[in-house]
Amino acid sequence: MKIYSKSVQAIVRRIIELDMILFGQYKLKSGLISPFYIDLRSIISWPDLFEDICNEYLPLMEQCQFDLICGVPYTALTLSTFLSNRSKIPMIMKRKERKTYGTAKMFEGCYEHGQKVLIIEDVTSSGASILETAIGLRDQGLRVTDALVFIDRDMNAIENLRKHGINVHCVIKFLPLIDYLREEGHLTEAQVRECNSWILKNRSPLPMYLTNQIKLANHFPNTTYSQRAKICKNSFSKKLFQIMESKSSNLCVAADLDNCESILKLAQISGPYIVMLKLHADMINDFDEDFIKQLKAIAEQNNFLLFEDRKFADIGSLVAKQYSQGRFKIVDWAHLVTAHLISGPGMIEALKSEARKSSEPRACVLISHLSSEKNLVPPSYAEEAFSMAMNHNDFVAGFISREKVAFDPSLIHMMPGVKFDSEKGDNFGQRYTTPEMAIETMGADLIIVGRGITSKLNESIEVLNSTLQSYQTRGFEAYQKTI
């Protein structure tokens, strides 16, 4: 049974000869071992084959209505360029990562709000790359209803994308392809059965980070702190949301000071206004147990939590000791700590194992963004932070972020670098944001204010109280506008 046109049969023979479809045992990016592997990236090295493949998209294009073409980066960029030139329909180009200079665009080319875009892809499994591109396009005010694919692996992409308003048109579907290859003598019956069985067992759902992006893109209103407290997966988050509700505050003061006397003074004065006090214990010159004893008493008296900005980033065994031992014994007094993702989930497990020994709520927040200019944290870091938080939500309370990372309302977004005069930075690359911009625009739940408050510490008590009250009021009023 010849299910393909002569031109498609010729293409299939070529890509088999050139090992672009392989059969055996191959480890995929997901870690799964697959009995087949498809990689069309090298078609650019075979101009005649490349053109033949592009020509098979043209009849599918005639079935769709669109104003623009956009290829999924990177393999499909060359395909979409060819198709744009052949059809004389304009193309726009999606970047994998946003430019950090110039116009900082995610999409290059000319387009207008409301135009319809046809997405081009070479191979698809779950449809994630197509949907990710569609989300970006829709965020620009463009419409997406169709996508063209050369090979569909028959692993659920068509069904997944249909749920999100995208019809997939493909040249080749994998299950009929392997039957054709068996007829042509390229595969045995056993190989076909193995491929069929593997595909049926490994239908690909959309990745969790992508369904999260879709929910974020819908811009649902926030729920109240008290409602969020009820759904938290860990006791720290529940307690924090309850304090935020009862004190009508989302203010955390960053006590980035180097002596105990100043920190205790700041804690005592700011206590009625704040929900947390953030420290850097390793920069306190006279840190001792008596200081912690006094600080804990002030925190309990004023109903706020203690937050050590340790930024853990080491192997699990060392992090466990850094957290529980040494001069600072952080786990004994800090309700919350910060951690980088770079060491992987083993570090989170290490922190969690030490935290379980405490009778009080303990948690960590993951650093998904930094507030300093020209930092080296890549855009994909936030996606990894989201996945790690969801996998460890019994201990991970949320994120230190510059934008909304997770739709899940049990996770909290804390934004550093908040200051009234946000147009001013410092000489070390710090970027500032107003309370309103942080909460209403950038998705923060809690604002972290440092120098905007600590710079007033040596002024009159009235000035410091007024500053604290202003940050508390403006932050909470901004939150009220989002619910």
UniProtKB/TrEMBL annotation:
Top-level taxon: Eukaryota
Domain Orotidine 5'-phosphate decarboxylase: 250-461
Gene Ontology molecular-function annotations: orotate phosphoribosyltransferase activity; orotidine-5'-phosphate decarboxylase activity
Gene3D superfamilies the record matches: 3.40.50.2020, Aldolase class I (3.20.20.70)
Pfam families: OMPdecase
CDD domains: OMP_decarboxylase_like, PRTases_typeI
HAMAP family: PyrE (MF_01208)
Name the record gives this protein: Uridine 5'-monophosphate synthase
Organism for this UniProt entry: Sarcoptes scabiei
